[in-house]
């Protein structure tokens, strides 16, 4: 009887493990979907707030956290540059854009002098990011890309830099 009871426990234990694995595999896509939905809602809110700040100088002043004096029109351009950058990051985060595709979009943005000024003016903002975060790594990727674009003597900017390997 003890042997049968032990065998039954092993079968029940194996069944529970199998059931847990199936449940996890079914819930993983749902969890990823919930994360994408939450990121999209956060992105929409961020964009709405940036639009309000671009439209209203009194609100633009709230986001003035630069280390030097930046004229109002330039601040509004910086807010738009931030919106473009965050939009590209959002598409990457939800899986709609690979890291290589993101790199291509950032390379185009890096061609614009106003975007480069924005990037430099917000360098101190990125210092607060945890070095283990994806946003920190993507910021370093942008830093390197802008440096490579600046150092390049080629007119073929679209081939400057080496797109990153896709993480496994």
Short synopsis of the structure:
The chain is mainly α and 168 residues long.
From the structure above, extract its key features.
168 residues; elongated; 73% helix; DUF6082; mainly alpha; 7 helices; DUF6082 family protein
Mean pLDDT: 83
What share of the residues lie within helices?
over 70%
Number of DSSP strands? 0
Residue windows where pLDDT falls under 50 for at least 5 positions: none
Globally, the shape reads elongated
Our count of helices gives: 7
Order of helices and strands: HHHHHHH
Strand proportion: under 5%
- Give the termini separation: 50 Å
Helix/strand/pairing category:
mainly alpha
The oligomerization state is single chain
Largest sheet: none
Radius of gyration, taken over Cα atoms and rounded to an integer in Å: 23 Å
Protein name: DUF6082 family protein
Pfam families: DUF6082
Organism: Streptomyces anandii
């Amino acid at each position: 009887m003890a042997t049968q009871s032990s065998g039954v426990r092993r079968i029940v234990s194996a069944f529970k493990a199998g059931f847990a694995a199936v449940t996890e595999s079914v819930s993983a896509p749902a969890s990823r979907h919930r994360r994408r939905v939450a990121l999209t809602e956060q992105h929409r809110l961020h964009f709405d707030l940036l639009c309000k700040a671009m439209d209203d100088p009194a609100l633009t002043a709230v986001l003035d956290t630069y280390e030097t004096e930046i004229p109002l029109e330039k601040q509004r351009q910086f807010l738009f540059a931030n919106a473009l950058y965050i939009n590209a990051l959002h598409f990457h985060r939800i899986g709609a854009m690979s890291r290589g595709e993101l790199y291509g979009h950032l390379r185009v943005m890096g061609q614009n002098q106003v975007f480069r000024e924005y990037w430099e003016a917000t360098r101190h903002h990125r210092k607060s990011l945890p070095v283990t975060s994806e946003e920190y790594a993507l910021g370093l990727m942008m830093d390197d890309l802008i440096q490579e674009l600046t150092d390049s003597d080629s007119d073929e900017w679209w081939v400057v830099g080496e797109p990153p390997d896709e993480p496994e």
